[in-house]
Description:
Helix content: 25-40%
CATH class: Alpha Beta
CATH superfamily: Response regulator
Largest sheet: 4 strands, parallel
Number of strands: 4
Number of helices: 3
Distance between the termini: 14 Å
Number of domains: 1
CATH topology: Rossmann fold
Strand content: 15-25%
CATH architecture: 3-Layer(aba) Sandwich
Amino acid sequence: MKIIVVCGAGASSTFVAVKLRSAAAARGMSVQVAAGSASQLDSLAAVDVVLVGAHLEAAVPGLRARAAATGTAVAVLPPVSPAALDGALALDLALNAKAGAR
């Protein structure tokens, strides 16, 4: 599974990506997690899930429209600071979003 975490500038998403990788490793799951800003999302091909920072929720409808063409699921992260975000919760959010996109 490939997950991309996006935020405004890419710094917070990097922190969340590290937590996601750790949570996946703890479960014995193999996932690819990339981080970046929303402006860096050129292509969603081969991306299973995009996790979007809560502060970018206004951009989600447009992102979902783009993602529909590739079957990519889009979910919004909870509105907490990246330091407070639980990696397991973020991983569950991604897994549930992907399951719902099928």
